[in-house]
Amino acid sequence: MASKRQPIDRSRRYGKPLTDFAFQEWKVPTLPPPWELTPVTPAATAEIDQVVHWMAQPHVQFAMHKDWDRDGWQAEIEFQFSDNKTRPFLVGQDGQRGGYVELYRVALDAVADSYDTPDRDMGMHGCIGEPDYFGYALPFWVALIAGVFETYPDCTGVISDPTASNQLVRTLDRNVCKIVDGHELGEVDLPHKQAALFRFERENFYAAMKRQGGVDVVLRELGGH
């Protein structure tokens, strides 16, 4: 039985001035092939239905706690489109969708007050919906970072903020750090959870990709093709 969607505390940051990056127009990141993102909009009936289905699966529910009914998810997507902070997407390869991800402007989120350089950063969190995609989590995370940097030239870093107790995602992010020279910043207190914070910097990312032969080579070695 689906749980009822409760109001979510998405307190905006409250300490530092905003920059123009927080209000730039949203674009769908173009990911390295064969990875692709499909926007989930308030009018995207099939895409919202897919999210509802995935969120009800046991392997997603225990981590996300968002197994809301259809009306709850409709309200959630409409809420996300009510300002410039967050945009949701389905993740896939060659038309086959396997997961859900939300990108957000760190400057509009409370997490921005937890570290020193958030003004032009993008945040990401999501889930693998289809069990067949479990093995793709690592290459997808790398592909998503590459796509964000390519689509948003002003973006200086990408962060991931999993729940501190979610050791599976923390291990994933630590593995991403090894590949892209990212940093684990430690645990932080957010209004809605205790989070483990990871940051993947633009300069480090491209230096790491160059050292390893390029994004396509890295993704191929990770099994992303």
From TrEMBL:
Presence of keyword Transferase: yes
EC number(s) reported in the record: 2.3.1.-
Gene3D superfamilies associated with the record: 3.40.630.30
Coiled coil: none
Pfam families noted in UniProt: Acetyltransf_8
Top-rank lineage group of the source organism: Bacteria
Keyword Acyltransferase: yes
Example GO molecular function: acyltransferase activity
Keyword terms, alphabetized: Acyltransferase, Transferase
Listed name of the protein: GNAT family N-acetyltransferase
Protein's organism: Nocardia suismassiliense
